[in-house]
Amino acid sequence: MDLDEGAEAIESFTGGEILAFPCEADSIVEPHEGMEFESEDAAKIFYDEYARRVGFVMRVMSCRRSERDGRILARRLGCNKEGYCVSIRGKFGPVRKPRPSTREGCKAMIHIKFNKSGKWVITRFVKEHNHPLVVAPREARQTMDKKIQELTVELRNKKRLCAAYQEQLTAFMKIVEEHSNQLSKKVQNVVNNLKEYESIEPQLLQQR
To answer: What is the model's pTM?
Structure first.
């Protein structure tokens, strides 16, 4: 895979396998139900990359284990603003001054489950966050660069359109000027004819 062409490799070192998720610099691969991964770690890496590009911090949340051997069978990955902070009081009151809570009860998450085929599959995806997303400087710079490119192209197109309009307006003004000159000549001819008629009008009257 050529990283210079904007592809990014997300690797899972479990079992020595490598998973690659190609994505362009200005595109985001979004999770969806049914998406498969070779391992739990691969799913974590993918969702962490998705979180970074979208603008939130991933939190590794609850899991479900096998009652027989304790293996993890399912896992929830979500936003670090999931849930609410619970105040913990000591035996004789607060242990220390509570810090401002960063949790806002955000529901955004994915639920991954180990299936019979040996893959980890997304069984649920909640996209919406209840708080503003903050894009990292790298992504913000890429977004800004893309916006600048779009505005540059738009400005170039506007300049071309203005040049075309100016050309059409110049051609129209030239036509108007030509018609105006022709009309002036016709008016002058009429005036000359009237003057000539006025000069010979007494003679015509005498002849009657």
So the answer is: 0.48
